[in-house]
Amino acid sequence: MTAIIESITKELLVAASQETAFTVFTGKMDLWWPKTHHIGKCPMVELVLEQQQGGRWYSRHEDDSEADIGYVLTWNPYGKLVLAWQVDGNFQYDPTLITEVEVNFIPEGPKTTRIIVEHRDLEKLAGGSKLIESMDEGWGMIMNLYKNVAEGIYRQ
Amino acid sequence: MQAQALPLADLSFNALGDPTRRAIFEKLQNGPLAVVHIADGMSVSRPAVSQHLKVLKEAKLININQQGTRSICEINQEGIRAIRNYLDRFWNESLAAFKTLAEKEEKNKQQKINTHKTPI
Predict the structure, then answer these.
(1) What is the CATH number for A32?
(2) Which residues are bridge partners to B72 per DSSP?
(3) CB pairs under 8 A between A and B
(4) Which of A103, A36, A28 is nearest to B104 (CA)?
(5) Do A153 and B95 touch (CB under 8 A)?
């Protein structure tokens, strides 16, 4: 019996069309993803999601190296996206690990979309000492980064 | 919200920093085990195992329950919850940034449409 841990589910209303919401989520992930959240050996320059079924999901770094995060399990524009999150609790890419991130884009009006994100199979991540370390040391940094991103977007 | 999670996370990290304790913790991911069987297949003395279990228990990564004459060890959900909490916050913050960006993108599209309209 493996310990079961409930999925993370997030729901938000976005004042944007379903198409805009989907294309920003998938095509501009680099602009909303926190730059400090990666598993590369040096600073991240870009986060890439290849926009197709089976497409790679990875970060690119200052030394031109790449670090895999996972891949596209379901590519169904503009309604549904399922990603395989293959980074384990030790911040290591593990090709045999699949935790799923399912994102549904539900149109509620011409310019209103409900986004439902579910990150499931989290018990597979258990034993993550380095992830917890990162929470200790990196959380303040991540918070500042988000703030900068959000404010930068407002300023533009 | 940082202050609440840190002490437990700190203990969990230190507890899993040791390879033997990590091995024990991973073993328990397959299910509860009697304390006497934890050292099976591992080159660790029984007193050493007791010490490791004590540290894991203090970090709330495992529970030890008495069942008759046997002590049973199992994973404590609270330790795993630290990982879940981390990801939960991660998604909150990154989705907030996504929402802001998507709404700005929508406004830009709208402005482009409006500027291309012929004045009546």
Answers:
(1) 3.30.530.20
(2) B34, B65
(3) 136
(4) A28
(5) no
SS (HEC) of B16-73: HCCHHHHHHHHHHCCCCEEHHHHCCCCCCCHHHHHHHHHHHHHCCCEEEEEECCEEEE
Measure the CA–CA gap between B55 and A153, rounded to whole angstroms.
Answer: 46
What is the arithmetic mean of pLDDT over B91-116? Answer: 90
Q: How distant is the Cα of B21 from the closest Cα of chain A, in angstroms?
A: 10
* Residue-number span of the structural domain to which A101 is assigned: 8-155
Mean pLDDT by 10 residues, chain A (156 residues): 71 95 94 79 88 95 92 97 85 83 96 94 62 43 46 48
Residue A96 lies in a domain: yes
Query: A82, A57 in Cβ contact below 8 A?
Result: no
Best B6, B20, B90 residue to mutate vs chain A (most A CBs within 10 Å): B90
State whether ipTM is beyond 0.85: no
Most distant pair of Cα atoms in chain A: their distance: 51
pLDDT per residue as tens digits for the range B3-51 = 334 445 555 556 666 778 878 887 887 788 998 888 888 888 888 999 9
**CB-CB neighbours of B90 under 10 Å:** 19
Q: How many domains does chain A have?
A: 1
Residue A3 lies in a domain: no
Domains and CATH numbers, chain B: 1-120 (1.10.10.10)
Chain A: closest CA distance from residue B17 (Å):
7
